User: What shape does this take?
Amino acid sequence: MHAPSSPPPPLPAPNIDELNRPHWEALKQGELRFQRCGACGHSWLPAREQCPSCLSSQVDWEVASGRASLVSWITYHVAFNKAFKDRIPYIVAIVTLAEGPRMLTNIVNVVSEDELTIDMPLVLVIEWEGETAVAHFRPDSLREVHRA
Ligand SMILES: [Zn+2]
Assistant: This one.
């Protein structure tokens, strides 16, 4: 018996609430937004009601430049959620935005993870997954050339 191949199920959507809505709405407009503390200047993602550093609730949204650097990564060869089965292998990474916040993301536009190095410069790529615009990153090849 052979099951007919069926299209993958829809991609899981983020849980959007009043707190993180500015982040998700900004991505639809082509911007990555993060939060910064008005009291101590600390910046972070994902959205929180209070600064994780000083617990101030003077929290503002800022637009990121889109520049980031690579902290660590792992290549997924197995789709633990069937919605991602057409995407494997794919790279899940932690990156640090130029403005400070760290975020979990995907690295795109790479053929193999051999191309990746710690601290390599990355640039933002906003991609649509169903109805959701998500922040991914790709290597900044231009800056690599300039560094060489
Ligand atoms: Zn603070």
Remarks:
- The chain has two helices and eight strands.
- Strands lie at 33-37, 43-44, 59-63, 67-76, 90-97, 102-107, 121-129, 132-139.
- Residues 21-147 form one domain.
